[in-house]
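Hey, resending since the last one bounced:
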Amino acid sequence: MSTSTRATSFPKLPIAGVGRRLAALLYDLLILTGLMMVYGFVALPVASVFGGLNCQPETLDYSPCVGGPLFQLGAVAVIAGYFFWSWRAAGQTVGMRAWRLLLANPDGTQLTWGQCLLRATVGPLSIACLGLGYFSAWARPDKASWHDLISKSQVRLLPKKQK
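The structure tokens again:
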């Protein structure tokens, strides 16, 4: 969907339900698991060589390697980078694509970096509160979750492709 087509047709699309959004999030967790494995594969040797970490594989104690703030900050950067890049580039993560979801402003334009930051900050809080940020969408007529409200964005359901 091109940008001009998206802007004109986006408000006409139905708003995505909570079930589809959570299913897309599960798909994204699989992608993130792979990304974190690659990150760990690259970051641990680099941190051991240049950071002077004392990993002790013989005692199965990797806490000096993965417990450090730089390693954890890098992990957060990888996770945030996945979502930021996906939301800004196409309005969809891999999971959202599989479930035909599209994220944009109410007028159909792509999110700003600030909106991505707000979604990435409030999204985990929506889940951390036992999913209340997502499940509260069932009680709202606009089906908006906490991070939709804070970032002033919407997730819409794309139509099935014609065969």
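DSSP finds eight helices and two strands in the chain.

Sorry for the duplicate.
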